[in-house]
Amino acid sequence: MAQLRPGPNLSRIATSLGVSVATVSNALSGKGRVSEQLVGKIREHAAELGYVPSQAGRALRTGRSGVLGLVLPDIANPLFPKIAQAIEFAAASAGYGVLIADSRGNVSAQTEAINRLVERGVDGLVIVPRRATRISAASCPVAVIDTASTPGNTVAADHWQGGQLIAAHLADLGHKRILIIGNNPESNVQNDRAGGIRSGLCPGMSAETLWIEKLEHQAGSGCPLGLARKVGEGFTAFAALSDLQALRVLTELQRDGIHVPAQASVTGFDDLIWSAVVTPALTTVKMDMDAIAEIAVSALVKNIKTSSTREGALVTAEKDRVPMQLIIRQSSAPANPVQEHLQMENS
Amino acid sequence: MAQLRPGPNLSRIATSLGVSVATVSNALSGKGRVSEQLVGKIREHAAELGYVPSQAGRALRTGRSGVLGLVLPDIANPLFPKIAQAIEFAAASAGYGVLIADSRGNVSAQTEAINRLVERGVDGLVIVPRRATRISAASCPVAVIDTASTPGNTVAADHWQGGQLIAAHLADLGHKRILIIGNNPESNVQNDRAGGIRSGLCPGMSAETLWIEKLEHQAGSGCPLGLARKVGEGFTAFAALSDLQALRVLTELQRDGIHVPAQASVTGFDDLIWSAVVTPALTTVKMDMDAIAEIAVSALVKNIKTSSTREGALVTAEKDRVPMQLIIRQSSAPANPVQEHLQMENS
DNA sequence: CTGAAAGCGCTTACAG
DNA sequence: CTGAAAGCGCTTACAG
């Protein structure tokens, strides 16, 4: 049988150096009590040989794979890149790999995705759940990222506070009538954001909410939202509950000859890739994904290292709310001369 | 020491059934020659017990982890969701898991990411390279996804042909002067697309290329591109080399009072999430990511199963070019009454 | 400070 | 058709 892993293993280093594998293992891991000089010699030799420890061997022995699973409701979601990047970074920093699984489609696909990951032996799971799914305890520690309203949630952006930032910003700009625009009345995230906006309104301000239908991505753009008419009715600010909807709002207004921000302000959420690219650039509220990922991963890792059984439960200790941050861009500049002047200069 | 994996293992099933582990293993894998009835009994019992094979044990024994690595130049890239989703699906269908790594930043980060994955014991690697990186042969099979112009490339969308689709579409619409808009003259992908467009022009048509600077995502929108002036100069079609740039073009034109598509057509590439959402919806050219992923993964899997050594090289046998597909939406409807009528009806 | 030994769970020739 | 045995590479008590 061919040598499957061409690289050297512990015993090759051991024999080559005339010591035992146990000593090599201890020297390399820094755990056992090995003499300084021997440690040096062993490490040097290992490096020379280009030794790479076998994850399989280690995993079999320790019962830990060193891998975390990431389950997403829909990888095609535009927020995904940021989540994945942040989780991957946090995991890599903690010495873990990240296995992905897409629960595209329904809830049963989510369960399947979780199972696939568990079968691959992940030590823990980061789950961004679909709608308001309750995650039935998997057989490993689980961290859930969504909103405070989600049962079993561990950590999330403070969407409510994010909404308040939008409200305060629009108040500063002097807006009185706000139209909140979402596409999913069932979404915890969107409800938190909308609630935050309403709770943050100042006296004299009012808000209505418009739930628009979800677009089929293939089908081309849906019905016009009639936003120009809303401007006619006196709405001057459109607060979308996601940048994707903000984009829809912005382009429809522009197409219908409404000038943004001179005639109406548009704001979004999430600071998605295009928010800085469109003209005018979108004012938005950003999650601190790196912080969220860091909290989720470290909670998971702590749990993994603590409990010696793999029987996992939700890592619920924390329940962190990570504050969001307002990013002011041109789409919500106030429609007064001073601001317009400034805006022209830096555009 | 606590039982790390709570689940049953082969020997538990074996003793519980009074047979040998070898027989259980053979029955479950369907490889060995085990009597029909015994196979049935064993499988049934395994299912009852909720047996999940240990990947670690299997990996250690076989030298294969059953995991593929996916290396991306920048996970924050908006194309990433589609790539990841497609690769994950293709891999899962072939019985493989997908470990991700982000080579954010420079080329050395890419090498590091590859090493991290190799150290985790991936059986093969799917790499979307940065710029024109040459992938130095890693110690496992590698499939590279980029363009035909990329050295060592295995499979990619036919970006050139995609460009030709755009050219033919604009020709059909009666456009004469085309402005091609890209942001990276070094990019193989963008050059292929631009070349395809130019090569597909009909007699009487002409194209110029405008390379715009890359936006810093944080910095807010960059300088205006002066597109309205280009309309004044007689350009009637703006062919962006990616939907992100198309979005920038579309919103700037609209902000400056140019009506799309009445006064100018706008097209993009990639069918990114927002292309169907904006008003007017973007005409674009779509990659068949599922096909690309399927080809890359199956080439990898074939190579993994064939070669018994893990010494991998680039899986270069195929060199497939997967055709792209034109998706016509409102942003490039011709500016004649008939079309405008149709457009109103289905909008 | 160092080493001999056991064992994690699996698969695969080989023998019966 | 079935089983006994070896061994993948590692870590961890335990003994010296």
Automatic annotation (TrEMBL), chains A, B:
It comes from the Bacteria. The keyword DNA-binding applies. One of its GO terms (molecular function) is DNA-binding transcription factor activity. Keywords: DNA-binding, Transcription, Transcription regulation. Residues 8-62 form the HTH lacI-type domain. The keyword Nucleus does not apply. SUPFAM superfamilies: lambda repressor-like DNA-binding domains, Periplasmic binding protein-like I. InterPro entries: HTH_LacI, LacI/GalR-like_sensor, Lambda_DNA-bd_dom_sf, Peripla_BP_I. This is LacI family transcriptional regulator. It comes from Rhizobium azibense.
